Amino acid sequence: MSRDAASRYEIPGQLQQLLLDFTVSCLVERPADLVDFAADYFAQLRQRRQEQHNQQTGGLVAGSAAHGNGHGPESDDSMLTDESDEPSPESLANRFNRRKSVFAESYDPEGDDDEGEKVVHPKSDQQRHRLAEAVKNIFIFRSLDPDQVQDVLDAMFEKTVDSGDYVIRQGDDGDNFYVIDRGAFHIYVASDAEPTKRLVGQYEDSGSFGELALMYNMPRAATVQAMSHGSLWAMDRTTFRRIILKTACKKRKMYETLLETVPMLRALTSYERMNVADALNPRTFEDGECIIRQGDAADGMYFVETGTVRIAVAGENDVEVEVSRVTKGGYVGELALVTHRPRAASAYCVGPVRLAFLDVQAFERLMGPCMNIMKRNIDDYEDQLIRIFGSRFNMSDFR
Ligand code: 1OR
Question: Which of 72, 162, 290, 380 sits in a 20 to 30 Å window from 234, CA-based?
């Protein structure tokens, strides 16, 4: 090819990465209609880029956390008094999306040194015991040090509810964060597309809610209503921000990019991905180290942040054969969690590797919406194993 022709066909710098990311998404999600999938994929990509651009060029100011507790010019209409006063769902949805990303871009947990007053609500031994049980499984408390946990336990106060009570109304300003002691609660969201509030989830005797408005300085993103008599542990906004905010925000920020690059997790809403971020823990390994050993009991799964993981299966005479490699955006260790069987393969590091670990309890609570994708991938493993070891390798051994 002449020099002229070569320069005429110069490949744009981003093309390779763009096509690679798209191809990976197609392989993982196996869309029924490739053209529709491509149209959605690239439209989303453009929207994300536009949002980033807006934030960098001053879109920031409009929804900025500088509005303090949400009383910005645009939130004057956001106080709910009764159902008929619900603010325009369109503005709520936009606010939620904008402030969430504004936060991710502009909030600097390191710079937030607001110590505030320590709050103590006295409790009986029985109450303290119940509270300690309730907070055990709350992901955003897990990264706290023991002193912080004590402060959290001191600051929480009990609130009982009756069936039908609204604990939180979408659009209100955030006052408290809640941990469920017992009771059933419904979560409703009104959106642009559906102005009438729609049931999007529920809690039954466990879980927590109400962190979004306090973390991101935005109006309540959902309505939470008690469906039975119940009891909650509440923590006021100031204490939440003083003790929890810094650690929780750091973690969400740290894992935000990782979670966006795992194609499988597109099956989750952005809210659900945030919950995954709360539950992840970093693990680093050296070259050659064993991350997972075939035959072991499974305690969790891993997302690959950086580096390469080699997957090997022991075949005849226990000789291990490499079956695949997993890199950034991929994951390992989900099979045993889906099948409830011992580890079906070993995983080793090729060079230094950084992973994000999701324990089995968090997996069961958070990864339900990804189950179909994971099950489809398991069928792929079966194909691979049969190709390598012959038909005697049957995944039903593992199921
Ligand atoms: P908040 O302070 O905004 C309402 O007050 C709380 O409901 C919110 O914090 C969350 O803790 C909780 N979207 C937004 N908020 C939710 C959701 C949710 N689920 C629970 N909350 N979605 C449901 C995801 C399964 C997304 C709906 C599109």
Answer: 72
